[in-house]
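**Fold in tokens:**
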Amino acid sequence: MERLLSFARHLNQRSDAYRKPALVLALIVFAVGCAFSYRQLDFRLDDLRPLPLAMLAVLVAPSLIYGGLGLVLLARSAGLQMPIRRATIISAYAYLAELLPLPGGAVIRTGALVRAGGTLRDSSMLVLLTAVLWVALAMMGAGLTLVPTSIGLAWPLMLIGTIGVGGVLQWLWAKAGYRTALLTLVHRIAGIAITALRLKFAFAALGVSIGLIETFPFVLALLMGSASSIAPAGLGVSEALAALAATTGQIPPATAFLAVGIDRLMCLAGCALVATAFQAFRRSEAAGDRATTAPITGK
């Protein structure tokens, strides 16, 4: 795991020359956007509703398991095997690796598949195209949601999304068979639903009631921000896109900005907890092994 993170950091250093300005700009957008949204809504931290916030925290666990299942399916698509426990831990590290200004998560997932026996070409293609599938599905969902309010935006989203979903499924079907292709489709749809549910609770924590389907444009904003790989974990980009998406409906853009930010920070915190717990377990296990193998001395 440490070698994969070191490799991601190495690539990050190589990309600093042209990514640092964009990174700084995106972080400024995030900080200024949070401050502006906070003042715009006349909102205080003690106004956050604890129950929806707690539900959002609880949903981080199935989100982590979802990430692990996704890596298991990627391995299966490449004809490999990967235990769900290991896949979930790797997925947590991959999410944290998105803090790097390059697609660190993609590097971690690709590296995990290569270490499991896959080729670099197949592994990178699987990671890339299944990410495209997720974004394309989010486009279709957002397009359907926007039909009543913004038909001019809805149809292009649905068209691009449909083409993307069809193309990826055809490639995956040819490579891994129809069962794996359909399982991957169901898995990605489940990911859209989990993300939508998380955002629903994030909005509720801010005192805004929103239907599950109405969150789909913000799901797309979140995923597009992550896919941009410019800002750490999409921070700033996702929120700005969510605020832009809010202009097509009744949700205040400032609320959308904060809701997406809250969701992203919660997920990062959950992944950090999993990674910290895993490292503590590894250290404890290593200490136990040293104590077991230590020579016994006596007079």
Q: What stands out?
A: Residues 253-293 form the longest helix (41 residues). The CA atoms of residues 92 and 274 lie 7 Å apart. The chain has eleven helices and no strands. The chain has a mean pLDDT of 82.
